[in-house]
Amino acid sequence: MGKNEILRVLEEIAEFEEEIVLEMDLKNDLEFDSLMYIDLAVKIKKITGREISAFELSNFNKVGDIVEFVGSLQK
């Protein structure tokens, strides 16, 4: 799962019309809530085969943190 694919998933979940950049805050800029983190966890599992908890994902603040984390799962 590459950076662009993760950004596309985040755009879809957040229903965000503008370009998402790595510096954006998940909660403040994209208005992520607990259901959105669950959706993200499910999509990451479908793509990577790795199970991640929504709680674990909710500890990340920035889009770049999620991109880096998911990238580390594939190494």
Throw out a few tags for this protein.
mainly alpha, 57% helix, globular
Q: Please, could you describe this protein's structure?
A:
There is one protein chain. The protein starts with a helix and ends with a helix. The chain has 75 residues and is mainly alpha-helical. The protein has helices spanning 3-14, 34-48, 54-58, 63-73. The mean pLDDT is 93. The protein contains 4 helices and no strands. The protein is globular, with a radius of gyration of 11 Å.
Assign the structural class, choosing from mainly alpha, mainly beta, alpha/beta, alpha+beta, or little secondary structure.
mainly alpha
Mean pLDDT figure: 93
Number of DSSP helices?
4
Largest beta-sheet characterization: none
Topology:
Layout: H1 3-14, H2 34-48, H3 54-58, H4 63-73
Would you kindly provide a brief summary of this structure?
The protein has four helices and no strands.
